[in-house]
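Issue: ligand-bound run for fe (ii) ion - logging full I/O for the record.

Environment: standard queue, default settings, no custom constraints.

Inputs:
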Amino acid sequence: MEARAPRPRGRLPNPNLTMELDVPLAALIDDPQGVLSALPNEPQRYHRDPLAFEYLLTRAGVDALIDRECLARQYLAVFKDGGRVDPRAYGTADQLMPRRGSMRQYLNDGHTVSLRGLQKLLPPIAGLCADVEQETGFQVHANAYYTPPGRSGLRYHYDPYVTLVVQLAGRKAWPVHPPLVENPVREHLSFTDIGFTDDQLRYLANTPPPLSYELEPGDVLWLPRGFVHAPHAVGDEPSLHLTLALKARTPHWLAERIVTDILDTAIRDPGMRAELAPSDLLDGTEGVVQAARDYLLGALLSMDTKQAAEGVRLAARHGTMPDVVSVTDR
Ligand SMILES: [Fe+2]
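Outputs:
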């Protein structure tokens, strides 16, 4: 894989913004350098001129996407009172587009329409996500949530990534509880897999949220992963917000990158591709396990950590470990 050309960084193409920003996160949060050094472990609220975000997405823009039927099914999800509408309700699986008029009808009926994966659809959002990926090394995706006045889309839940909420139009209230699961990640402890226990549900039903935010246009909320939230629109206007999801890199991710690279190298060694005799595999199992352990230990101990670090940096910014760079000698 070829390294991507460096992107121009952090220039908001909004003529109303007089400040030139050198770092993409500075467009969204205060003290980005501090955040890059140590991620906030409590929610943080920031504010920007709402005009600064108009280039990303506006309510009129979302209305046009919906009413001109520009959004394919893969970019849509519909929620109401905590439940997700089965996509088959607005078209059959082999149809590219939702049934005509269905999204406007859902909004009129009090549903939240979510625009998913906007980093693949809208160039300004693609640029912002790519810039934040380059700056943080975290994988970033963007969804928007369009909620009619007074309605909610999702009940209490948590997400396995940092949620950076950008309020674009209307107002939304965010009751927030501290995490009930430490450092959730999608692969192992995603809320959608495990949900809440009965005790946790009772706690949430009977405990006022210790934190609460009411976001207005231009407000930005940094919600660390795991914080439990149930946003709902307030006031007379529909609420529109953009969520940037920053999937944090973890020591587990780092170890996985390194071991994956060792195994990618190992497959080139005919000795590592030789058959194991059934007797060794099933009876002398401990011996073959020790041999595999010794191979991995040898590869780890001979690893060129400087080269490995370069590979990890590239993998963090590109989302995968590029195969042009190895953490071991080739
Ligand atoms: Fe969420």
